[in-house]
Each structure stands twice: as C-alpha cells, then as structure tokens.
Amino acid sequence: MKRVIKVAGFGLPLMLAVAGFFSSPAAAQGPATVPVIVAETAAPIIVGAVKPKPKNTGLDKFEGFVMHANSAQITVRAKGNDMAIRTFPLSQAASDKMQKIIDRGGYQYGDKVTVYYVPATSQAIKFKGKPSKPI
C-alpha cells in the first residue's frame, strides 16, 4: 500500500510536468475569413396581407335567446350560461327597428339574437336575429 502511494505521489506531478512541456502555448484565435458570395437579388415576393373586419368601436356583443322583447327593451338569456340574463334598453334607431319587427309578429321566446351594446350604459345600439313565426 505504501508503495502505491509513493508511485502515485511521484508519478502524478511528473505526468503533469510532461503534459505542460509538450502542449502548445495558449494563443488568441485570429478572425475567420469568410469568402463573400455575391448573388443576384431576386425580386421580393409580395403577399397580400390579411385585413381584419372593421369592428364597431366601443360596442360589446351579447349572444343569446330572447326571453321578452318590446319596443323599449329586450331581455336576453346568454347562449352558454342559462343563469346569465340581461335586459338592454333600446336606442332610438334600435327601437324603430324593433317596432317594425313587432308589427310583423315580433320575437318569440327562444329566438336566437345578437345584441350590440355600449358597455357603460348597457344600451342596445343594434341587434341581429331572425324572428320566428308568430303563434
């Protein structure tokens, strides 16, 4: 055991000295020269950009089913949530449109509608939906 320790104690420093003597000195790398390839530039490919649909600014959308509608307001139950029921007072333009629909039979319970409204006042500016045939 003592012999192994003596050989290792003498051999390890000797191996490090020999490795340092035969190794190349450290030096900084020079800049790599890259040949410049000149190619003809092709004409750019023009791709038509996708233009988003114009959205009525400031209006939110509420989709659902009619519970009650008259010329002054519309009450709608949300499409995905049966517990969400909203009543929207109608603007003058929407009220005129609703009166024309009421004259032809009006909205019935369960008709699908989309109401566009001002979030601050919950006033319906316009609405879309096909009224069903009157009973």
Task: Please provide a written account of the structure.
The radius of gyration is 40 Å and the shape is elongated. The chain has helices spanning 2-22, 92-103; strands spanning 60-69, 73-78, 85-89, 112-118, 123-128. A five-stranded antiparallel beta sheet has the order 3-2-1-4-5, covered by helices on one side. A hairpin with a 6-residue loop joins strand 2 and strand 3 (85-89). It is an alpha+beta fold and 135 residues long. The chain contains two helices and five strands, in the order αβββαββ. The chain has a domain at 60-128: Beta Barrel (OB fold (Dihydrolipoamide Acetyltransferase, E2P)).
Shape by Cα distribution: elongated
In terms of DSSP E residues, the strand content is: 25-35%
Spatial order of the strands in the main sheet? 3-2-1-4-5
Total number of strands: 5
Query: Which fold name fills CATH's third level, the topology of the domain at 60-128?
Result: OB fold (Dihydrolipoamide Acetyltransferase, E2P)
Helical content (DSSP H or I, runs of 4+):
10-25%
* Largest sheet composition: 5 strands, antiparallel
Measured between the Cα atoms of the first and last residue, the distance is: 108 Å
Mean pLDDT: 84
Give the name of the CATH superfamily of the domain at 60-128: Nucleic acid-binding proteins
Total count of helical runs of at least 4 residues: 2
CATH class of the domain at 60-128: Mainly Beta
- Second CATH tier, the architecture of the domain at 60-128: Beta Barrel
Low-confidence stretches: none
Q: What is the chain-wise order of helices and strands?
A: HEEEHEE
By secondary-structure content and strand pairing, the structural class works out as alpha+beta
